[in-house]
């Protein structure tokens, strides 16, 4: 019973170190399917899984939805700003930093005030949204692209929530320590992404 969550921990760590920080501008952003695919870059994927995990360990179970909801709302705001041209040269670096911060939040999940954590989640989401929006197609294609990346974002958040809940059931007292280990792996991946700039 304990092997599945441990494999998930190992898989998350490997995903984090598998790729380099990809520049976001220049990807094809013509369609719903491009939007679906975009969040699978290492930085976005790690951030969204980390938000789901953090929500399980930092928030009451009945309110675990608040982390993903805050991320998705701020992501949409950031994407609209990015589509309008608000994409600066340091956004990519800030996104990699957000992966480090979200990893650190997992390490201190139970000691961080939830309001502060939700604020940091929203800030990270805004940065990620700027990158999504900068790649969005003009006018008619934007709605399909945005729908695609929001669906994938929701699925990744759900994956983080499901993994966190499974860890709590399987490991009970040790679950928070394992979440902290995942946070260290996520933070390390973020540092690696930063080193690529």
Feature tags:
197 residues; 0% strand; globular; mainly alpha
Q: Write the H/E string, N to C.
A: HHHHHHHH
Sheet with the most strands, sense and barrel status: none
Number of domains as seen in the coordinates: 1
Strand content: under 5%
Shape: globular
Instruction: Show unreliable segments.
Output: 1-29
Rg to the nearest angstrom? 16 Å
The number of helical elements comes to 8
The strand count comes to: 0
Proportion in helices: over 70%
Mean pLDDT: 84
Structural class: mainly alpha
CA distance, first residue to last residue: 41 Å
Structure description:
- The protein has one domain (about 30-195).
- By secondary structure, it is mostly helical.
- Helix content is about 75%, strand content about 0%.
- It has 8 helices and no strands.
- The chain has helices spanning about 5-20, 30-35, 40-60, 65-85, 90-105, 115-135, 140-170, 175-195.
- Helix 3 (about 40-60) runs antiparallel to helix 8.
């Amino acid at each position: 019973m304990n092997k599945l969550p441990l494999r998930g921990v190992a898989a998350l760590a490997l995903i984090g170190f598998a790729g380099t920080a990809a520049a976001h501008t220049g990807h094809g952003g013509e369609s719903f399917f491009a939007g679906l695919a975009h969040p699978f870059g290492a930085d976005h994927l790690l951030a969204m899984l980390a938000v789901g995990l953090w929500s399980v360990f930092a928030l009451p179970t009945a309110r675990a939805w608040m982390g993903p909801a805050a991320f998705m709302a701020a992501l949409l705001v950031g994407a609209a700003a990015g589509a309008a041209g608000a994409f600066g040269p340091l956004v990519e670096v800030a996104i990699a930093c957000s992966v480090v911060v979200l990893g650190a939040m997992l390490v201190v999940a139970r000691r961080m005030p939830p309001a502060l954590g939700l604020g940091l989640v929203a800030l990270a989401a805004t940065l990620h949204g700027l990158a999504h929006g900068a790649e969005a197609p003009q006018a008619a294609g934007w709605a399909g692209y945005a729908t695609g990346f929001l669906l994938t974002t929701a699925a990744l958040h759900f994956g983080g929530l499901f993994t966190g809940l499974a860890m709590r059931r399987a490991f009970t007292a040790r679950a928070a320590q394992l979440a902290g280990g995942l946070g260290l792996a996520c933070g390390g991946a973020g540092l690696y992404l930063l080193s690529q700039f």
